[in-house]
Specification:
Blueprint lengths: L18 H12 L3 H13 L6 E6 L3 H12 L3 E6 L7 H9 L5 E2 L6 H13 L4 E4 L3 H9 L9 E4 L2 H12 L6 E4 L4 H24 L7 E5 L3 H12 L3 E5 L3 H9 L3 E2 L2 H4 L5 E4 L9 H4 L6 E5 L9 H7 L2 E6 L2 E5 L5 E5 L5 H4 L6 H20 L7 E4 L2 H14 L9 H7 L7
Parallel strand pairs: 1-2, 1-4, 2-3, 4-5, 5-6, 6-15, 7-8, 7-10, 8-9, 10-11, 11-14
Antiparallel strand pairs: 12-13, 13-14
Length: 426
């Protein structure tokens, strides 16, 4: 990948000397991101973002680097901040500053004060478009920077958590601009949520603990697309999987997929490993900790670090100590211990590298094209949530298949006539 030397930029990264390693890893990820490369090449010619200020609040990984580079190729004046304090890859952040001239404010392990300061720095950029991952930037804008709302063309959001927050803003009448629901694009949630989260979650758990999953009773809390992928991959590694759910339809689906389904209160004494993927608060609470096995492992692969009630666990614990990187043991008064991974944050990014680049290729293609759609339709869209257009979704899938060397059938003229006619019968 050809990089251009950057001028002196405002930035906050761990160490610019890490840039060569970051460049090498960004190039490696690019091998499996052919769709985004084609989009970037077109952006470089057409410059759809000339004069547009973009703030991207994302996990700063090798895959995100390709999105940031594509936006810059398209003429964007952009800035990148971390969407999670533990998800930043410091060498990637350094490379984007040093080699590509993209301002980055992200350090792995940054505290909440630093994280919130970076959100404010991003808003100081006075963005026209916000690429959000959890809607922290949009929520802060709406609550604290109302004078900047007139600058906004729109936002794109690719997490379930973020979409829930945007819907709440819309219902409360405070969302005053269009928002692209990237999360619900077929080429996003079918693949990123299911295959990306499924593989990377188990990767993070194994890197953090080196435990054998075969034979372990594993609870997956939540059976959305992320839960489906996590449960499927855990079973593939030999785990005995229990699913907990609040949605009766998803619960039936989990049963039909061959998993045991029960309330968390019943599952808590049985499991060796707990993985939360709900996007909700306090899915695992004090009453669950009290009945867990000694040494039970608890982690989260939802978005924010609120799914596990760590505040209550910490208050109850007589001792908390690091036993491995990203692995803390909480000793309880009963003498039993609970092991928490990644401080309750996204384990796939805290202890591993996040989703494989092959699935992020499609997710970030949606992000890039969602931004372009907002620019092309400036002033035409009412405030609200908008799906990625179906033709764009299918084009991304076609490009991915082509890159994989896979061909599919097309309808014959006779078939087209048949499916569009009501007069033809059996």
């Amino acid at each position: 990948m050809t990089a251009t030397a950057a001028p002196q930029l405002k930035h906050e990264v761990k160490d610019l000397a890490l840039a060569p390693l970051g460049n090498q890893r960004i190039e490696w990820a690019g091998r499996e991101m052919p769709v985004l490369k084609q989009i970037r090449d077109r952006f470089a010619k057409e410059k759809p973002f000339e004069g547009i200020r973009i703030v991207a609040c994302c996990h700063v990984t090798t895959e995100t680097a390709h999105l940031a580079i594509a936006l810059k190729a398209g003429g964007a004046d952009s800035i990148l901040i971390a969407s999670n304090p533990l998800s930043t890859q410091d060498d990637v952040a350094a490379c984007l500053v040093a080699d590509y001239g993209i301002p980055v404010f992200a350090i792995k392990g940054e505290d909440s004060e630093t994280y919130n300061r970076h959100v404010q720095i991003a808003l100081d950029h006075r963005p026209n478009i916000i690429i959000d991952d959890g809607s922290d930037v949009v929520a802060t804008l709406v609550k604290e920077r109302k004078e900047q709302l007139s600058d906004i063309i729109g936002t794109t959001e690719e997490t379930t958590t973020g979409i829930v927050r945007l819907r709440a803003m819309l219902n409360d009448g405070v969302l005053s601009f269009p928002a692209m629901n990237v999360n619900d694009a077929d080429t996003k949630h079918f693949f990123d949520n299911r295959y990306g989260t499924g593989q990377s979650t188990l990767d993070g758990i194994i890197r953090a603990t080196n435990v054998l999953l075969a034979g372990k009773t594993t609870v997956v809390a939540g059976y959305g697309w992320c839960g489906k992928g996590t449960a499927m991959r855990a079973r593939g590694l030999g785990a005995n999987v229990i699913v907990t759910e609040i949605d009766p339809i998803k619960a039936i689906e989990a049963v039909m997929d061959g998993f045991r389904v029960m309330p968390m209160a019943e599952a808590a004494p049985l499991a060796d490993l707990f993985i939360t993927v709900t996007g909700n608060k306090h899915v695992i609470r004090p009453e669950h900790f009290e009945v867990m096995k000694d040494g039970a492992i608890v982690c989260n692969s939802g978005h924010f670090d609120i799914e596990i009630d760590l505040k209550s666990l910490g208050a109850k614990a007589s001792e908390v100590k690091d036993v491995r990187p990203f692995t803390q043991q909480y000793k309880l008064p009963s003498g039993k211990s609970v092991v928490v991974l990644g401080e309750g944050r996204l384990i796939n990014l805290a202890a591993a590298e996040g989703h494989p680049s092959a699935v992020m290729d499609m997710s970030f293609a949606n992000q890039a094209l969602g931004c372009e759609y907002l620019v092309k339709n400036t002033g035409k869209l009412e405030p609200g949530l908008y799906s990625i257009p179906a033709e764009v979704d299918k084009d991304i899938a076609r490009l991915k298949l082509q890159a994989m060397g896979i061909q599919i059938d097309t309808l014959t003229a006779e078939q087209v006539e048949y499916i569009n006619s009501w007069t033809s019968g059996t």
